[in-house]
Amino acid sequence: MSYAQERTDIESRLSSNWSTTAIKWDNVAYIPTPGTAWIRCTILPGEVEALSFGRDTTKEFMGLIDISIFTPKETGSVLARTYADTLSALFDMVAFGTIDCDEASVQNLGVDGDWYQLNITIPFSRRE
Questions:
Q1: Residues 104, 88: Cα–Cα separation, whole Å
Q2: How many C-beta atoms surround the C-beta of residue 99 within 10 A?
């Protein structure tokens, strides 16, 4: 298990279960199509905790999956909230690959430029 495997597991879960909009991935160029909804997936590694002592220490790696939903401004929030329901269900309290997810939460970030934005934050952990 590794940070690379963590990324693979999370991105695979999202890409295998989401075809509704384009997905902007970390460090990959993307130019949104005006007037067309899209999402951005960001994986934020966090703290590491030793769960045992000695040479064969088990560690728990914690982090956040941050999914930003962008819909055209001035079109209401129904579409973004519908996407939030679907995306939250993909990760909320689910285990897959090396990842164990906790409860998803949604934050309304409002309008910025041409986009209305909601963010979904899912805490996760993995052990090795």
A1: 6
A2: 21
Residues 6+ apart with CB under 8 A from 31: none
What's the token pair of residue 46?
């966090």
Give the N- to C-terminal CA distance of the chain in Å, as an integer: 6
Q: SS3 for 11?
A: helix
Q: Treating both helix axes as pointing N-terminal to C-terminal, what angle do 78-91 and 3-17 enclose, rounded to 10 degrees?
A: 130
SS3 79: helix
Give pLDDT tens digits for 112-123.
999 999 999 999
User: Quick one: tokens of 7?
Assistant: 């990324």
- 22-66: per-residue pLDDT in tens? 999 999 999 999 999 999 999 999 888 877 777 777 888 999 999
Q: What is the pTM of this model?
A: 0.91
